[in-house]
């Protein structure tokens, strides 16, 4: 799990369809885990409980496979082969089945879909103040709202370190009576580990065990041995902790986005990954327990909405009124690299804040290069002395050069000892490269970005003096080191700096759109702080997560969309507290239409990957602005039927539609609309050879009862936008009014265009992001 803190680790969505002992399935008796979705209304009356029906179904296909001589599992132990039974956000079960049995399940009555087990991986303070959450007026508003409505945030991750002061329940009232959750205890996680802040703690490991083998009994605990879950939980809803810092860096009061909210922890990730059957069970249980918001900082590739069990589970959570936030992934800046793209999920990308941790490289030729670092150790390099500098990469591209990448065993101690080594990012974790240099006898490291990272700087807690620099600066240092055999440098560290401009900036690692499943649905939805985030940490692991690192800290600084996701989940909890009657779609709309697209220099948001302007495929609707989301004026609401109608445009077969409708009857309205007509708080239009296209939207007034909104539209080169009506007059709160946008094509453009239409009433500014994609003629 430590690799979640390095964007160099690939975030892959793995279908377990290969023959790997104990993990995948092969034709015959080899068993793998499958998730089976059932239609609860089709349960025969002969079975008193759904579980009895599930066991009978497994027994039936096992007997059939045995009779046909195709192998299979134990017929008599059908009940023992059931891994989970799902009853709330999802209906069905997970079971150990052979490939033949899984195939035969499709012919069984009541079976809607069969999913092979998938492995997901984790996508891995100043942010409350940066987001405007610490003003006295704002704190008062939110504290009163939280007190009047006990919001519960469910976090699916690696567990929690309950002793952290971030999870103090001081001043909190009794646990809400509606809460149905539990505190699952273990040898190292007592009943007292839960309190009025951590009101629920559960573990989910049966799917993991079924695929990888049994966990040690001591591992079966909610206690966080990785740190990732503690960090995300504290970011979402951690209590205020004055004087928090990471080894002297980022000192201040650490607090979550919704410090008055309750936390329910669902541990779904283990040393070997996060398995879909466990994640599905956790979502199902969280909804049944009574959470209001779910934060899921993990994911993987997706081939379709109906084949992604997390997407299906999130749909079930949405039906129960639960807001689901997921990380977008750390595979940027590649296009279409997003995960968790279903429209009923809030997909969150990552941005920087106005805080940095400057460090510098002073070269022997007089050059002075800026970088960042979180190094804090016993040994510092003298700023008055120069140390030999070496770069072991070749003259040509070193993308696969183990020496340039400072991979394990690649550095010759005779060449490295006593020197500062220039290493390139890639393949292995950033902190691991520093350890390789240290083991080879190096006294320091300069970590240079490659083209994939651009000028983005991510600070790390290295075990030796080390400074991270951008691609351009790294290239200059390489040229110097290769040209001068007496090249030298020294490294200095300057602590914490606030007020960085420009900020925020879209993180280079943050996954990008477009949404490859449906271009008409803009993804990511928005961005939030995800670079160099300070939050609570587990005492079971070092800040670098390296086995040789013996340091222990109460707070750690991490980067990733794993960190941005709980920011949005926590702010969603605040909105739910203030507006308990709002649907998940209304909450997401408020976040998106009030998001901003200009940085603290009043210029368009920048992209760290290119150094140029960002766009909606990188930042979605924009950067979250909690204070404005509190009072958005208008919202785009979406009902379950609206989502069903959207799915009807996705060319799903009737059996595939049943995954969401849970019934075999006609679910689509007639005539079917277009995917672009989903009432999303962003518009993504596809213009082909047709001269016109019209898209419809409905807005709900959640502001002043009587108000009049007028629209403005940003200019586009390839099309003219006509909004009808151009004025919306509301006479009561809750009133819904429709408008349509007609795109009149002028000239096909070679690339998508980005802009917005904005409704304003003098108090509110409701910005709806607009993307136009010009399709090639058929």
From TrEMBL:
The listed locations are: Secreted
Ranges for domain PA come to 386-477
Q: Which residues form the active site?
A: 157, 228, 562
Provide the Inhibitor I9 domain boundaries: 33-123
PROSITE patterns, A to Z: SUBTILASE (PS51892), SUBTILASE_SER (PS00138)
Q: Does the keyword tRNA-binding apply?
A: no
Which keywords does this chain's UniProt record carry?
Glycoprotein, Hydrolase, Protease, Secreted, Serine protease, Signal
The protein's matches in Gene3D superfamilies, at most eight in alphabetical order, are given as: 2.60.40.2310, 3.50.30.30, Peptidase S8 propeptide/proteinase inhibitor I9, Peptidase S8/S53 domain
Q: Which domain of life is it from?
A: Eukaryota
Which SUPFAM superfamilies does this UniProt record tie to the protein? PA domain, Subtilisin-like
Signal peptide residues are 1-28
What is the name of the protein in this document? Uncharacterized protein
| Species in which this protein is naturally found | Spirodela intermedia
